[in-house]
Amino acid sequence: MRYFYREIVKENGLILRGVLNTPEDFDENKKYPVMVSFHGLLDDRNGINYMSIQEAKYLTSGNILVYRFDFSAAGESDGAIFDLTLSRLIEEGRLIYDHVIKDSFVDKENIYLRAHSIGSSAAVSLAYEKNPRGLILYAPVVDFTSKTNTFMKTLEKVNEDKSLVEKSLDLGGMRLSTKILEDGKNLNILDLASKYQGQVIIFRGDRDKLISKDHTKDLTNAFKNASYVELSGTGHNFTSENLRLEMFDRTFRFILGSKK
Known about the structure:
The structure is a single chain. Helix 1 (about 50-60) crosses helix 8 (about 240-260). This protein has helices at about 50-60, 85-100, 120-130, 150-160, 180-185, 190-195, 215-220, 240-260, and strands spanning about 1-10, 15-20, 30-40, 65-70, 105-115, 135-140, 170, 175, 200-205, 225-230. Strand 7 and strand 8 (about 175) form a beta hairpin. By secondary structure, it is an alpha/beta fold. The longest helix is centred in the C-terminal third of the chain and has 18 residues, at about 240-260. It is built from 8 helices and 10 strands.
């Protein structure tokens, strides 16, 4: 697998840093199907336990290009996690997508958005706008109400604590503002999902304690053409080599099976 490092400069001057992964015999004069990867919270373009690198190696061996960028404040990108909002994720996802389609070797009829956890919120929100060929969602977090999302329930408690001047939560050494809670409530992602016509595949581990099966099913049913895959014996970050390989293989076959 080859690495081509990329940078996107935002209007405020902050830089998003990422990488394009290609097969070893990559030819710029050919057209390739592409997967654009969005990571989750407290994650980066490499993935939890290097999941996204593993996946890129798997897919590029089958002649699929993979773009992996760090959102602001993650990995090597500029910015602060304190200012993270869903609106910012969507804006940066849009910048990444627009960056990808400028490359001449990208088959623009066969672009797939793959997202993990909260990155799925950006992917679903952009799907209707950008109309990628397909969506691949790993443990999607798309509900920002405290009714179904345990993390949002924690943020809600912080928001309601009158003794706190700064409404934020320390996430293992990085502080996140509760602004993401209010911002997320303003977007109905299930409604946006219903407007997307492309094919979708959704994966969830049966031991996922962050998102419920019921809510994941609600998201699946909101799409016009979606299938749901539940993996037995793993949680939100798919920390099982065999199950990851199964997921990568299903993703690979999903791309090959749905591309024009």
